[in-house]
Amino acid sequence: MGKRKTQRKNTAMLDGDDDSSSSISSSTTMRSDRMSVSEIEEVEINKDSLLDEAVDALYEKRGSTREKALASIIEAFNSDLQHQFVEKKFATLLHQCLSSIKKGSSKEISLASNVIGLLALTVGPGDNAREILEESITPISQASKSGSEPSKIASLLECLAVITFVGGVDPEETEKSMQIMWQSVHPKLGSNVVTVKPAAVVITAVVSAWSFLLTTMDGWRLSPKLWQESIAYLSTLLDKDDRSVRIAAGEALAVIFEMGSLEKFAAEAKGSSNGSISEGNKSKEGFSHIQGLRGKILNQVRDLSVEAGGKGSAKKDLNNQRNLFKDVLEFLEDGYCPETSMKIGGDSLQTSTWSQLIQLNFLRHFLGGGFTKHMQENEFLQGVFGFTPKRRNLLGSEHISNSQKRMYKSPNSAISKARTQMLNKQRMQSKDRNFGHFAVNAGDEDS
């Protein structure tokens, strides 16, 4: 039981990050409760008119004007769920943002990417989210390959992760997005390919976005070759100088182990002989390579969990790394997932699997200051995490805003529940497959 205490460090870290935004949100709610219905509606009308002006400004020729407009749209989408506005201006906003991605500066592309992701999270699963994915995937892919501005590439790929998470229906769509991400840092080499060493911020963004989408996949349908390439590459990232890169790689490996994918292709390699001597030797070599990779990763994780830190090492970053890799080590050795809890407006949001934790961390990063608001009012995200705020049960009372009432009656509700059931089913399948099998050294002692 002593080991499990290390997992609680995540709880303190999560709680500490969002206390201020939760308390601000709560005090805002108290003020709005004292406002009359007519006052609330007047505020909403003013907000809509400001958003209309911002969307109109996206047609301006001056890039700086468009950048300011996009920044104000992001602020509006983070401070409130803009369901009514989206119903009216969905297509216009999407296509203007795509226009910014095609012709804008790096800053404008980053801002437009953020807006598209927020738009997808606001509409929730359904036809609009599918349209966002279908219309955006090619411009995003092309823009991520042009130029080398790290923050631009990171924003594009984070946007791609969000719109795929919300709008992707078929596993093939998710795989396509994951492949686009992977090629940004690990391109297929050819005679006409010039390799540029990706910046640490890009590697971190790619690995985090890739892991985020991996949590929605059934790992058993992906090819062993793909897994072996992915795991070998992630292992090399654990040795990189940049701490954020190491943390992202550690989280990705934790999800892979949770899915049982390393065990899957280890078993395939061990049992793939069809009787011929060459095939038998080949399978033995493959199995030995995988076993060696498992041992290498375990040693890397163990070292990172107790790293002393170097010059200029920020104490918080170092502690975050140690805590993460202690959790990964405990998971690999004993099979325990870290359990986390954070307060959102007085309610507790909890995670108990690596997949949930990676989803939570990614969405908190993407939404930034808007995370608390979205978790309190965004039905899709509540479904993803099984989170039900107490005040959600007050539908019809004077304590709930008109925008919230619209959201709860939204046609997305049924679709949201269906997607949640799918995600939960995949997590349960992972748990069933992995129970008793995901310790790295599980089978080593018998051999």
From TrEMBL:
Residues 25-333 form the Interferon-related developmental regulator N-terminal domain. Belongs to the IFRD family. Residues 378-430 form the Interferon-related developmental regulator C-terminal domain. Residues 1-36 are annotated as: Disordered. Residues 21-30 have a biased composition (Low complexity). It comes from Hibiscus sabdariffa (roselle). It comes from the Eukaryota. This is Interferon-related developmental regulator 1. Pfam families: IFRD, IFRD_C.
